[in-house]
Design a protein that fits this description.
By secondary structure, the chain is of the alpha+beta class. It has one domain. 49% of the residues lie in helices and 17% in strands. It contains six helices and six strands, in the order αββββαββαααα. A six-stranded antiparallel β-sheet has the order 4-3-2-1-5-6, covered by helices on one side. α4 packs parallel to α6. The radius of gyration is 42 Å and the shape is globular. The N and C termini lie far apart (125 Å).
Length: 252
């Protein structure tokens, strides 16, 4: 009896093992098939063309053009002035006083309005394309000599005159003269505040004169300095009050 039961159990175990072996290949095939489908889908996704990033716009190289204005009259108090700047209006001013050997060099930056007027006049002159002599038939060398210079990196030109009937050339010289007068005035005021505060009242009168006759390149550039002057207790009260009046006049 026991042998019969053992034989029966053995038979059942063998059949179960055979059934399992038949199922395993099918399951393995199913797993492989699913893996193949997944791989194919992934490959398909990877094979899709990717959108190339749009090229970044190239920045326009800065304008290399250099401009300069030169004025000389050995008998004047300010006997020599040289203004040099780039197309953005940044540069320097060099000036020499009569009786002094060492020139003074200060940074200069033209305001947006002044730069627009100056570059506009250079353009109207077509300076590098022109060979016009701006010197008029009248000679006023005793009033000083002007030199205009431009260099765009390929061409350069200098024009010299002491008086001109060319409206654009004369207006351009006038614009630079205002730039120079304003820059020198600012330098003198800063120097007076530090070393000679008693000179500030006279300099404030000069500023008002220049402002009244439109002799400054851009009066609004003086606003920060005037704010400082009107509260600077190191300078005379009359100069502080004058600075306050000029500040209100400019800010109107």
């Amino acid at each position: 009896m026991d042998r019969l039961i053992a034989a029966t159990i053995s038979t059942l175990v063998i059949k179960e093992i055979q059934r399992t072996l038949r199922i395993l290949p099918c399951a393995a095939l199913l797993i492989l098939a699913l893996s193949a489908v997944s791989f194919a889908q992934e490959t398909k996704r990877n094979d899709r063309p990717t959108a190339e990033p749009s090229p970044t716009p190239q920045q326009k190289p800065p304008d290399p053009t250099r401009y300069s204005y030169d004025f000389a009259q050995p008998q004047f108090i300010i006997r020599h002035i040289l203004i040099e700047h780039d197309a953005q209006g940044r540069g320097k001013i060099t000036f020499e006083r009569k009786g002094e050997e060492t020139p003074i060099v200060e940074p200069v930056e033209l305001s947006t309005g002044a730069l627009g007027r100056i570059l506009g006049l250079w353009t109207e002159l077509r300076f590098l394309d022109s060979e016009e002599n701006y010197q008029s038939s009248k000679n006023f060398a005793h009033l000083g000599t002007y030199r205009l210079y431009m260099d765009d990196g390929r061409r350069k030109r200098t024009a010299e005159f002491n008086w001109s009937v060319n409206k654009q050339a004369w207006a351009l010289a006038g614009e630079y003269r205002r730039v120079a007068d304003q820059a020198i005035l600012i330098f003198d005021l800063k120097l007076a505040r530090e070393l000679q505060p008693l000179n500030t009242p006279q300099l404030m009168k000069l500023m008002e004169t220049l402002l009244t006759r439109d002799g400054l390149s851009d009066p609004k550039q003086l606003v920060p300095l005037l704010h400082e002057l009107r509260t600077d207790e190191h300078i005379p009260l009359i100069a502080r009050n004058h600075a306050d009046r000029l500040l209100k006049k400019i800010e109107k």
